[in-house]
Design a protein that fits this description.
By secondary structure, the protein is an alpha+beta fold. It has eleven helices and eleven strands. Strands 1-2-3-5-4 form a five-stranded antiparallel beta sheet. Strands 6-9 form a two-stranded antiparallel sheet. The relative contact order is 0.14.
């Protein structure tokens, strides 16, 4: 049975010594029930949020998130134009741990509601650019994954090989994706700091501006395109605004093949959904993935826009890819293009067991 917000508040007083709670209510950033959460207000007006993982996957994610938040020192955070949650304390509960963070006030926004112009779309582009402009040294120093361009290419090849090895990927798509990973020019890029798990749900918004960013469990050095593929699922003019703002912020650091790889990653979400179904031995998911792959290959034949690279032939328009992604269920819930899966990487940060220590 789910814990009440009063029970969670009691856990928070155990996690944070001398915490004097004036009010509490149920609250969650989470759309899929992965965490039990409550919003807390202390006597001095400080707002905190307590979260208890509801599954092993959620616990792993939370552990990785804690490591990343520790790596985001005050000096690193000062470079960002938005807030990031801060770790406050934790306490063991039911074989896992309840963790208290600072609360980031603001709103969530649906992908289809992001409007073009110098408002939210541009703010999203600038926010992503700010993450990608961080120095890579703090990620390396924290022992978080640092992937080269070759590593990113190898991970992509592995995904394609696994998906096509099922015999369920149409030959035209298999050829398409293989041509993209065999294009050496496409994979000549300088890795950057990336969040690694961005979706529209990552952003906290106020008055058409990004004021906070949640979910840092996949923080690493890697391919910037991983953080941008979902942006292309916005309405076309909004996506153009976000990408333009991103490019202006990044300046000379921009990668001419960035959007080609972002488009490839968007298409490969279908491959990931297929592999997810195979791993779970869930025939409904597999059948759903096959259906979407069939729809994708039909559009490949009919659409000569948005190539993956200058030397490749036609692929599906990114807006059509995202339309398919939005129709895909996430653990029984439709409409989330990320499928609730972890990012495609060669490794995840290990769980850290020393968070019981007080912060210095």
């Amino acid at each position: 049975m789910a814990r009440s917000h009063l029970t969670l508040a009691a856990l928070a007083t155990s996690a944070v010594p001398d915490l004097d709670i004036a009010g509490t209510r149920s609250f969650s950033y989470d759309l899929h029930g992965d965490f039990e959460s409550a919003l807390l207000t202390s006597r001095d007006g400080t707002e905190l949020i307590i979260r208890v993982p509801a599954s092993q996957d959620a616990e792993t994610e939370q552990s990785a998130d804690l490591i990343a938040l520790r790596a985001l020192t005050s000096g690193v955070r000062a470079r960002l134009p938005f807030d990031v949650p801060e770790y406050v304390g934790q306490t063991p509960v039911g074989g896992t741990r309840a963790v208290v963070f600072t609360f980031l006030p603001g709103d969530k926004v649906a992908l289809e509601n992001v409007q073009p112009g110098d408002g939210l779309a541009a703010s999203i582009g600038r926010a992503i650019a700010a993450v990608h402009s961080l120095p890579t040294s703090f990620v390396t120093d924290a022992g978080l994954p640092t992937l080269s361009a070759a590593d990113c290419l190898a991970a992509t090849k592995t995904l394609i090989a696994s998906a096509t090895g099922t015999g369920l990927v149409p030959a035209a798509l298999a050829k398409r994706w293989r041509e993209a990973v065999n294009d050496e020019d496409l994979w000549r890029f300088q890795p950057t700091v990336i969040n690694g798990a961005l979706t529209i749900d990552s952003f906290i918004v106020r008055e058409e501006s990004v004021v906070g960013l949640l979910g840092w469990s996949a923080l690493r050095v890697g391919d910037a395109a991983r953080d941008l593929h979902w942006v292309l699922g916005m309405r076309a003019d909004s996506a153009e605004t976000a990408i333009e703002a991103y490019s202006l912020s990044r300046g000379a650091s921009s990668d001419p093949n960035l959007l080609f790889r972002a488009t490839l990653y968007a298409e490969l979400e279908l491959a990931r959904w297929l592999m997810h179904g195979r791993e779970l031995h869930d025939q409904l998911i597999v059948d759903d993935a096959v259906s979407m792959l069939d729809g994708l290959v039909e559009r490949v034949h009919d659409d000569d826009a948005d190539p993956l690279a200058p030397r490749t032939g036609p692929i599906m328009a990114i807006t059509d890819v995202e339309a398919l992604l939005e129709a895909t269920p996430v653990e029984g819930e439709p409409g989330d293009a990320s499928f609730g899966l972890p990012p495609v990487t060669e490794e995840r940060p290990p769980a850290e067991d020393d968070f019981d220590r007080d912060d210095d």
